[in-house]
Amino acid sequence: MSNSKLYQKACEFMPGGVNSPARAFGGVGGEPVFIKRGEGCRMFDSDNKSYIDYVLSWGPLVLGHAHPHVVDAIHETAQNGTSFGAPTELETQLAELLVSQFKSIDMIRFVNSGTEATMSALRLARAHTGRAKIIKFAGNYHGHADMLLAQAGSSLATLSQSASAGVSENAVADTLIAPYNNLEAVKNLFENNRQQIAGIIVEPIAGNMGLVLPESEFLPGLRKLCDEHGALLIIDEVMTGFRAALPGAQTLYDVKPDITCLGKVIGGGLPVAAYGGRREVMHQVSPLGSMCQAGTLSGNPLGMASGLATLKGWLRENVFDNAAKRAEQLILGIREIAHSKGVLIQSAHVGTMFGFYFLKEPGQVKNFADAQRLVDTERYAKFFHAMLDQGYYFAPSAFEAGFVSAMHQPEDIAKTLKAIDKALA
Ligand code: KE4
To answer: Which residues line ligand 1 (CB under 6 A)?
Structure first.
Protein backbone atom coordinates (compact mmCIF):
# COMPACT_ATOMS: atom_id res chain seq x y z
CA MET A 1 0.00 0.00 0.00
CA SER A 2 1.38 3.48 -0.81
CA ASN A 3 2.32 5.88 1.98
CA SER A 4 -0.71 8.05 1.20
CA LYS A 5 -3.04 5.06 1.38
CA LEU A 6 -1.49 3.97 4.70
CA TYR A 7 -1.93 7.50 5.99
CA GLN A 8 -5.54 7.82 4.83
CA LYS A 9 -6.44 4.51 6.44
CA ALA A 10 -4.67 5.45 9.69
CA CYS A 11 -6.58 8.73 9.75
CA GLU A 12 -9.86 6.83 9.66
CA PHE A 13 -9.13 5.18 12.98
CA MET A 14 -6.67 7.42 14.86
CA PRO A 15 -6.67 11.21 15.36
CA GLY A 16 -4.26 12.61 12.77
CA GLY A 17 -3.30 9.03 11.84
CA VAL A 18 -0.69 8.97 14.59
CA ASN A 19 -0.34 8.01 18.24
CA SER A 20 1.67 11.05 19.14
CA PRO A 21 1.33 14.53 17.61
CA ALA A 22 5.15 14.80 17.46
CA ARG A 23 5.03 12.32 14.55
CA ALA A 24 2.39 14.20 12.56
CA PHE A 25 4.70 16.50 10.52
CA GLY A 26 2.64 19.46 11.81
CA GLY A 27 5.73 21.61 12.07
CA VAL A 28 7.09 20.79 8.61
CA GLY A 29 4.03 20.01 6.47
CA GLY A 30 3.40 16.95 4.31
CA GLU A 31 2.32 13.46 5.28
CA PRO A 32 4.17 11.44 7.92
CA VAL A 33 6.30 8.65 6.50
CA PHE A 34 5.13 5.16 7.50
CA ILE A 35 8.09 3.02 8.53
CA LYS A 36 8.18 -0.71 7.88
CA ARG A 37 11.51 -1.67 9.49
CA GLY A 38 14.76 -0.37 10.88
CA GLU A 39 18.29 -1.73 10.72
CA GLY A 40 21.33 -0.12 12.33
CA CYS A 41 21.27 3.63 11.66
CA ARG A 42 18.64 3.26 8.91
CA MET A 43 14.85 3.02 8.64
CA PHE A 44 12.92 1.77 5.60
CA ASP A 45 9.49 3.06 4.56
CA SER A 46 6.61 1.18 2.95
CA ASP A 47 8.24 1.65 -0.50
CA ASN A 48 11.48 0.27 0.96
CA LYS A 49 13.18 3.67 0.62
CA SER A 50 15.96 3.94 3.23
CA TYR A 51 16.63 6.89 5.52
CA ILE A 52 19.62 7.49 7.76
CA ASP A 53 17.80 8.16 11.03
CA TYR A 54 18.69 11.06 13.36
CA VAL A 55 15.50 10.81 15.46
CA LEU A 56 16.02 7.19 16.65
CA SER A 57 12.51 7.02 18.17
CA TRP A 58 13.16 10.46 19.81
CA GLY A 59 16.30 9.25 21.57
CA PRO A 60 15.96 5.64 22.87
CA LEU A 61 17.80 3.71 20.13
CA VAL A 62 21.42 4.27 21.18
CA LEU A 63 22.41 0.94 19.57
CA GLY A 64 20.43 1.74 16.43
CA HIS A 65 17.44 -0.19 15.07
CA ALA A 66 16.97 -3.93 15.71
CA HIS A 67 20.35 -4.51 17.34
CA PRO A 68 20.77 -8.32 17.53
CA HIS A 69 21.63 -8.27 21.25
CA VAL A 70 18.47 -6.30 22.05
CA VAL A 71 16.21 -8.37 19.78
CA ASP A 72 17.62 -11.63 21.19
CA ALA A 73 17.14 -10.43 24.78
CA ILE A 74 13.49 -9.55 24.11
CA HIS A 75 12.91 -12.79 22.20
CA GLU A 76 14.43 -15.00 24.90
CA THR A 77 12.52 -13.21 27.66
CA ALA A 78 9.24 -13.45 25.76
CA GLN A 79 9.62 -17.25 25.59
CA ASN A 80 9.04 -17.29 29.36
CA GLY A 81 6.02 -15.01 29.20
CA THR A 82 5.45 -11.30 28.69
CA SER A 83 4.19 -10.08 32.07
CA PHE A 84 3.33 -11.49 35.48
CA GLY A 85 2.10 -8.57 37.55
CA ALA A 86 4.50 -9.94 40.13
CA PRO A 87 8.12 -9.05 40.87
CA THR A 88 10.87 -10.53 38.68
CA GLU A 89 14.65 -10.55 39.07
CA LEU A 90 15.02 -8.59 35.82
CA GLU A 91 13.62 -5.49 37.56
CA THR A 92 16.21 -5.78 40.31
CA GLN A 93 18.99 -6.18 37.72
CA LEU A 94 18.07 -2.99 35.83
CA ALA A 95 17.42 -1.10 39.08
CA GLU A 96 20.85 -2.16 40.39
CA LEU A 97 22.52 -1.07 37.14
CA LEU A 98 20.88 2.38 37.21
CA VAL A 99 21.62 2.91 40.92
CA SER A 100 25.26 2.00 40.27
CA GLN A 101 25.40 4.58 37.48
CA PHE A 102 23.82 7.59 39.26
CA LYS A 103 25.42 8.91 42.50
CA SER A 104 22.15 10.78 43.18
CA ILE A 105 19.96 7.65 43.02
CA ASP A 106 19.76 5.26 46.01
CA MET A 107 16.35 3.79 45.05
CA ILE A 108 14.27 3.78 41.87
CA ARG A 109 10.70 3.05 40.74
CA PHE A 110 9.95 1.91 37.16
CA VAL A 111 6.99 3.30 35.23
CA ASN A 112 5.96 3.12 31.56
CA SER A 113 6.62 6.60 30.15
CA GLY A 114 8.50 9.79 30.85
CA THR A 115 5.14 11.42 31.54
CA GLU A 116 4.48 8.97 34.37
CA ALA A 117 8.00 9.49 35.70
CA THR A 118 7.76 13.28 35.93
CA MET A 119 4.15 13.22 37.16
CA SER A 120 5.15 10.82 39.95
CA ALA A 121 8.31 12.80 40.78
CA LEU A 122 6.25 15.96 41.29
CA ARG A 123 3.75 14.08 43.47
CA LEU A 124 6.71 12.78 45.48
CA ALA A 125 8.11 16.31 45.94
CA ARG A 126 4.71 17.42 47.21
CA ALA A 127 4.43 14.38 49.50
CA HIS A 128 7.93 14.94 50.88
CA THR A 129 7.57 18.68 51.54
CA GLY A 130 3.84 18.89 52.24
CA ARG A 131 3.79 21.85 49.84
CA ALA A 132 1.71 22.28 46.65
CA LYS A 133 3.44 24.62 44.18
CA ILE A 134 5.96 23.57 41.53
CA ILE A 135 8.25 25.56 39.23
CA LYS A 136 8.87 24.59 35.62
CA PHE A 137 10.50 26.45 32.73
CA ALA A 138 8.86 27.79 29.59
CA GLY A 139 9.88 25.59 26.64
CA ASN A 140 10.76 22.60 28.81
CA TYR A 141 8.58 19.57 28.05
CA HIS A 142 8.14 16.90 30.69
CA GLY A 143 5.28 14.88 29.15
CA HIS A 144 1.57 15.55 29.18
CA ALA A 145 0.47 15.38 32.85
CA ASP A 146 -2.17 18.07 33.48
CA MET A 147 -0.09 20.17 35.90
CA LEU A 148 2.74 20.34 33.38
CA LEU A 149 0.58 21.54 30.46
CA ALA A 150 0.87 25.15 31.63
CA GLN A 151 2.18 28.24 29.93
CA ALA A 152 3.33 31.56 31.29
CA GLY A 153 0.40 33.84 32.03
CA SER A 154 -0.18 36.66 29.54
CA SER A 155 1.13 39.33 31.89
CA LEU A 156 4.32 38.81 33.84
CA ALA A 157 2.09 37.68 36.72
CA THR A 158 3.36 34.41 38.05
CA LEU A 159 -0.07 32.82 37.54
CA SER A 160 0.22 30.36 34.68
CA GLN A 161 -2.49 29.45 32.22
CA SER A 162 -3.56 26.11 30.85
CA ALA A 163 -1.69 25.19 27.65
CA SER A 164 -4.18 22.59 26.49
CA ALA A 165 -7.89 22.10 25.97
CA GLY A 166 -9.20 19.86 28.73
CA VAL A 167 -6.66 21.08 31.28
CA SER A 168 -8.55 23.30 33.70
CA GLU A 169 -7.11 26.47 35.21
CA ASN A 170 -7.33 24.68 38.58
CA ALA A 171 -5.06 21.93 37.30
CA VAL A 172 -2.27 24.44 36.65
CA ALA A 173 -3.04 26.79 39.55
CA ASP A 174 -0.01 25.48 41.48
CA THR A 175 2.35 25.52 38.50
CA LEU A 176 4.72 28.50 38.38
CA ILE A 177 6.72 29.25 35.25
CA ALA A 178 10.08 30.93 34.74
CA PRO A 179 12.19 31.55 31.62
CA TYR A 180 14.98 28.94 31.14
CA ASN A 181 18.42 30.16 32.20
CA ASN A 182 16.86 32.89 34.37
CA LEU A 183 17.83 32.45 38.04
CA GLU A 184 16.50 35.90 38.98
CA ALA A 185 12.98 34.87 37.96
CA VAL A 186 13.23 31.71 40.06
CA LYS A 187 14.49 33.67 43.04
CA ASN A 188 11.47 35.99 42.74
CA LEU A 189 9.08 33.05 42.55
CA PHE A 190 10.52 31.65 45.78
CA GLU A 191 10.28 35.06 47.46
CA ASN A 192 6.67 35.56 46.36
CA ASN A 193 5.64 32.03 47.35
CA ARG A 194 7.49 31.50 50.63
CA GLN A 195 7.24 27.98 52.12
CA GLN A 196 4.83 27.00 49.31
CA ILE A 197 7.11 25.54 46.65
CA ALA A 198 7.56 21.75 46.74
CA GLY A 199 10.03 21.52 43.94
CA ILE A 200 11.57 22.65 40.67
CA ILE A 201 11.54 20.42 37.60
CA VAL A 202 14.06 21.19 34.86
CA GLU A 203 15.55 19.73 31.69
CA PRO A 204 19.29 19.94 32.51
CA ILE A 205 19.87 20.55 28.80
CA ALA A 206 16.73 21.80 27.05
CA GLY A 207 15.94 19.41 24.20
CA ASN A 208 12.31 20.32 23.52
CA MET A 209 12.83 23.85 22.20
CA GLY A 210 15.67 22.76 19.93
CA LEU A 211 18.91 22.23 21.87
CA VAL A 212 19.55 24.98 24.44
CA LEU A 213 22.43 24.57 26.89
CA PRO A 214 22.15 25.75 30.48
CA GLU A 215 24.36 28.71 31.34
CA SER A 216 27.15 27.67 33.70
CA GLU A 217 25.57 29.02 36.88
CA PHE A 218 21.98 28.00 36.07
CA LEU A 219 21.78 24.43 37.43
CA PRO A 220 24.04 25.07 40.46
CA GLY A 221 21.91 28.15 41.13
CA LEU A 222 18.72 26.06 41.14
CA ARG A 223 20.35 23.58 43.54
CA LYS A 224 21.27 26.45 45.89
CA LEU A 225 17.77 28.01 45.77
CA CYS A 226 16.16 24.63 46.51
CA ASP A 227 18.47 24.14 49.51
CA GLU A 228 17.75 27.65 50.80
CA HIS A 229 13.98 27.25 50.50
CA GLY A 230 13.53 23.58 51.43
CA ALA A 231 12.31 22.57 47.96
CA LEU A 232 13.33 19.47 45.99
CA LEU A 233 15.28 19.68 42.73
CA ILE A 234 13.92 17.30 40.10
CA ILE A 235 16.17 16.85 37.06
CA ASP A 236 14.32 15.44 34.09
CA GLU A 237 16.85 13.22 32.30
CA VAL A 238 14.26 11.37 30.23
CA MET A 239 16.02 12.66 27.11
CA THR A 240 19.51 13.50 28.38
CA GLY A 241 20.00 10.29 30.42
CA PHE A 242 22.81 8.23 28.82
CA ARG A 243 22.63 10.67 25.87
CA ALA A 244 24.27 13.95 26.97
CA ALA A 245 26.87 12.06 29.02
CA LEU A 246 27.24 8.83 30.96
CA PRO A 247 25.15 8.52 33.03
CA GLY A 248 23.48 11.87 32.43
CA ALA A 249 23.68 15.67 32.18
CA GLN A 250 23.72 15.99 35.99
CA THR A 251 27.25 14.64 36.00
CA LEU A 252 28.31 17.08 33.25
CA TYR A 253 27.19 20.03 35.36
CA ASP A 254 28.04 18.36 38.69
CA VAL A 255 24.61 19.06 40.20
CA LYS A 256 23.02 16.50 42.53
CA PRO A 257 19.20 16.44 42.19
CA ASP A 258 16.87 15.10 44.89
CA ILE A 259 14.93 13.18 42.23
CA THR A 260 15.98 12.13 38.70
CA CYS A 261 13.53 11.15 35.98
CA LEU A 262 14.69 8.67 33.33
CA GLY A 263 13.09 7.15 30.22
CA LYS A 264 13.75 6.49 26.52
CA VAL A 265 17.28 4.94 26.50
CA ILE A 266 16.67 2.81 29.64
CA GLY A 267 14.03 0.84 27.73
CA GLY A 268 15.96 0.68 24.44
CA GLY A 269 12.76 1.26 22.47
CA LEU A 270 10.29 -0.47 24.81
CA PRO A 271 8.05 1.48 27.21
CA VAL A 272 10.31 1.90 30.25
CA ALA A 273 10.85 5.00 32.38
CA ALA A 274 11.69 5.59 36.03
CA TYR A 275 12.11 8.09 38.83
CA GLY A 276 14.64 7.70 41.59
CA GLY A 277 16.50 9.59 44.28
CA ARG A 278 17.75 9.72 47.81
CA ARG A 279 16.56 6.89 50.09
CA GLU A 280 14.81 9.20 52.56
CA VAL A 281 12.80 10.74 49.69
CA MET A 282 11.98 7.43 47.96
CA HIS A 283 10.76 5.96 51.25
CA GLN A 284 7.59 8.05 50.78
CA VAL A 285 6.60 5.92 47.78
CA SER A 286 3.93 3.26 48.40
CA PRO A 287 3.93 0.59 49.68
CA LEU A 288 6.72 1.94 51.96
CA GLY A 289 5.23 5.39 52.34
CA SER A 290 1.95 7.18 51.87
CA MET A 291 2.48 8.49 48.32
CA CYS A 292 0.37 6.43 45.95
CA GLN A 293 1.82 5.42 42.56
CA ALA A 294 1.15 2.18 40.71
CA GLY A 295 1.15 0.56 37.24
CA THR A 296 0.04 -2.73 35.70
CA LEU A 297 3.02 -3.08 33.37
CA SER A 298 5.63 -1.12 35.33
CA GLY A 299 8.95 -3.01 35.32
CA ASN A 300 7.67 -5.25 32.52
CA PRO A 301 10.11 -8.14 31.83
CA LEU A 302 10.41 -7.38 28.09
CA GLY A 303 11.20 -3.73 28.82
CA MET A 304 13.70 -4.68 31.49
CA ALA A 305 15.43 -7.15 29.17
CA SER A 306 15.55 -4.58 26.37
CA GLY A 307 16.90 -1.88 28.70
CA LEU A 308 19.56 -4.18 30.17
CA ALA A 309 20.78 -5.33 26.74
CA THR A 310 20.79 -1.74 25.45
CA LEU A 311 22.71 -0.29 28.38
CA LYS A 312 25.20 -3.19 28.52
CA GLY A 313 26.05 -2.51 24.87
CA TRP A 314 26.08 1.27 25.30
CA LEU A 315 28.26 1.24 28.44
CA ARG A 316 30.98 -0.88 26.79
CA GLU A 317 34.37 0.80 26.47
CA ASN A 318 34.44 3.69 23.91
CA VAL A 319 30.98 3.01 22.44
CA PHE A 320 29.54 6.27 23.79
CA ASP A 321 32.68 8.28 23.00
CA ASN A 322 32.77 7.04 19.41
CA ALA A 323 29.11 7.94 18.92
CA ALA A 324 29.72 11.37 20.47
CA LYS A 325 32.45 11.91 17.84
CA ARG A 326 29.79 11.35 15.13
CA ALA A 327 27.56 14.06 16.62
CA GLU A 328 30.55 16.42 16.68
CA GLN A 329 31.46 15.51 13.07
CA LEU A 330 27.91 16.32 11.99
CA ILE A 331 27.65 19.66 13.80
CA LEU A 332 31.14 20.86 12.79
CA GLY A 333 30.24 19.92 9.21
CA ILE A 334 26.92 21.77 9.32
CA ARG A 335 28.64 24.86 10.72
CA GLU A 336 31.18 24.83 7.88
CA ILE A 337 28.53 24.40 5.18
CA ALA A 338 26.22 27.08 6.65
CA HIS A 339 29.14 29.48 6.99
CA SER A 340 30.26 28.89 3.40
CA LYS A 341 26.74 29.65 2.18
CA GLY A 342 26.11 32.59 4.52
CA VAL A 343 23.26 30.72 6.22
CA LEU A 344 22.65 31.94 9.79
CA ILE A 345 22.49 29.01 12.21
CA GLN A 346 22.92 28.32 15.91
CA SER A 347 24.15 24.82 16.64
CA ALA A 348 25.32 22.68 19.55
CA HIS A 349 26.28 19.11 20.35
CA VAL A 350 26.49 17.48 23.78
CA GLY A 351 27.54 13.84 23.94
CA THR A 352 25.38 11.96 21.43
CA MET A 353 22.74 14.72 21.13
CA PHE A 354 22.84 17.66 18.78
CA GLY A 355 20.67 20.56 17.67
CA PHE A 356 20.74 23.37 15.15
CA TYR A 357 18.46 26.28 14.35
CA PHE A 358 18.15 28.38 11.21
CA LEU A 359 17.97 31.95 12.51
CA LYS A 360 15.91 34.81 11.04
CA GLU A 361 18.47 37.32 12.26
CA PRO A 362 21.73 37.30 14.25
CA GLY A 363 21.11 36.52 17.93
CA GLN A 364 21.39 33.77 20.50
CA VAL A 365 18.62 31.43 21.64
CA LYS A 366 18.88 31.05 25.41
CA ASN A 367 15.22 30.43 26.27
CA PHE A 368 11.83 29.74 24.72
CA ALA A 369 10.97 33.38 23.96
CA ASP A 370 14.26 33.72 22.05
CA ALA A 371 13.46 30.53 20.13
CA GLN A 372 10.01 31.79 19.17
CA ARG A 373 11.46 35.12 18.04
CA LEU A 374 14.64 34.02 16.26
CA VAL A 375 14.03 30.56 14.79
CA ASP A 376 13.22 30.36 11.07
CA THR A 377 10.71 27.49 11.08
CA GLU A 378 9.85 27.90 7.39
CA ARG A 379 13.47 27.41 6.39
CA TYR A 380 13.69 24.39 8.67
CA ALA A 381 10.59 22.86 7.01
CA LYS A 382 12.24 23.26 3.59
CA PHE A 383 15.48 21.76 4.94
CA PHE A 384 13.59 18.86 6.49
CA HIS A 385 11.90 17.89 3.22
CA ALA A 386 15.05 18.44 1.14
CA MET A 387 16.81 15.98 3.44
CA LEU A 388 13.89 13.53 3.58
CA ASP A 389 13.80 13.42 -0.23
CA GLN A 390 17.50 12.50 -0.23
CA GLY A 391 17.00 9.75 2.38
CA TYR A 392 17.85 11.45 5.68
CA TYR A 393 15.36 11.58 8.55
CA PHE A 394 15.67 14.56 10.90
CA ALA A 395 13.10 15.59 13.54
CA PRO A 396 9.89 16.86 11.84
CA SER A 397 10.06 20.04 13.96
CA ALA A 398 12.55 22.90 14.37
CA PHE A 399 12.13 22.62 18.14
CA GLU A 400 13.54 19.16 18.78
CA ALA A 401 17.00 17.70 19.39
CA GLY A 402 18.74 15.17 17.13
CA PHE A 403 20.54 11.96 18.05
CA VAL A 404 23.21 9.59 16.74
CA SER A 405 23.73 5.93 17.59
CA ALA A 406 26.60 3.46 17.88
CA MET A 407 25.68 2.39 14.34
CA HIS A 408 26.25 5.77 12.65
CA GLN A 409 29.64 5.41 10.92
CA PRO A 410 31.89 8.33 9.84
CA GLU A 411 30.93 7.67 6.20
CA ASP A 412 27.22 7.91 7.08
CA ILE A 413 27.86 11.36 8.54
CA ALA A 414 29.98 12.34 5.53
CA LYS A 415 27.13 11.33 3.18
CA THR A 416 24.67 13.29 5.34
CA LEU A 417 26.86 16.38 5.12
CA LYS A 418 26.99 16.12 1.31
CA ALA A 419 23.17 15.99 1.30
CA ILE A 420 23.03 18.98 3.68
CA ASP A 421 25.32 20.91 1.34
CA LYS A 422 22.85 20.24 -1.49
CA ALA A 423 19.83 21.03 0.71
CA LEU A 424 21.28 24.38 1.82
CA ALA A 425 22.12 25.30 -1.76
P1 KE4 B 1 7.10 10.29 27.24
O2 KE4 B 1 5.85 10.38 28.09
O3 KE4 B 1 6.86 10.77 25.83
O4 KE4 B 1 7.76 8.90 27.31
O5 KE4 B 1 8.20 11.25 27.89
C6 KE4 B 1 7.86 12.59 28.11
C7 KE4 B 1 9.13 13.42 28.20
C8 KE4 B 1 9.60 13.80 29.43
N9 KE4 B 1 10.72 14.55 29.57
C10 KE4 B 1 11.44 14.92 28.48
C11 KE4 B 1 12.68 15.75 28.68
C12 KE4 B 1 11.03 14.54 27.18
O13 KE4 B 1 11.75 14.92 26.11
C14 KE4 B 1 9.86 13.76 27.03
C15 KE4 B 1 9.35 13.31 25.67
N16 KE4 B 1 10.07 13.77 24.52
C17 KE4 B 1 9.30 13.96 23.31
C18 KE4 B 1 10.21 14.39 22.16
N19 KE4 B 1 11.16 15.37 22.50
C20 KE4 B 1 8.50 12.73 22.98
C21 KE4 B 1 7.99 12.66 21.56
C22 KE4 B 1 6.54 12.32 21.55
O23 KE4 B 1 5.81 12.79 22.46
O24 KE4 B 1 6.15 11.60 20.63
So the answer is: 20, 22, 58, 113-115, 118, 141-143, 203, 207-208, 236, 238-239, 263, 273, 400
What pLDDT, on a 0 to 100 scale, did the predictor assign at position 160?
A: 86
Beta strands in 289-422 (DSSP E): 345-350, 353-358, 392-393, 402-403
The parent domain of residue 20 ranges over: 3-66+317-424
Please tell me whether residues 390 and 302 are part of one structural domain.
no
Domain count, the chain: 2
The tens digit of pLDDT for each residue in 364-373 reads 999 999 999 9
State the distance from the centre of ligand 1 to the C-alpha of 228, rounded, in angstroms. 30
pTM: 0.98
The string of pLDDT tens digits covering residues 183-230 is 999 999 999 999 999 999 999 999 999 999 999 999 999 999 999 999
Which phi and psi angles does 44 have, rounded to 5°? -125, 130
Cα distance between residue 328 and residue 332, in whole Å? 6
User: In this structure, are 180 and 295 located in the same domain?
Assistant: yes
CA-nearest residue, atom 10 of ligand 1 = 142
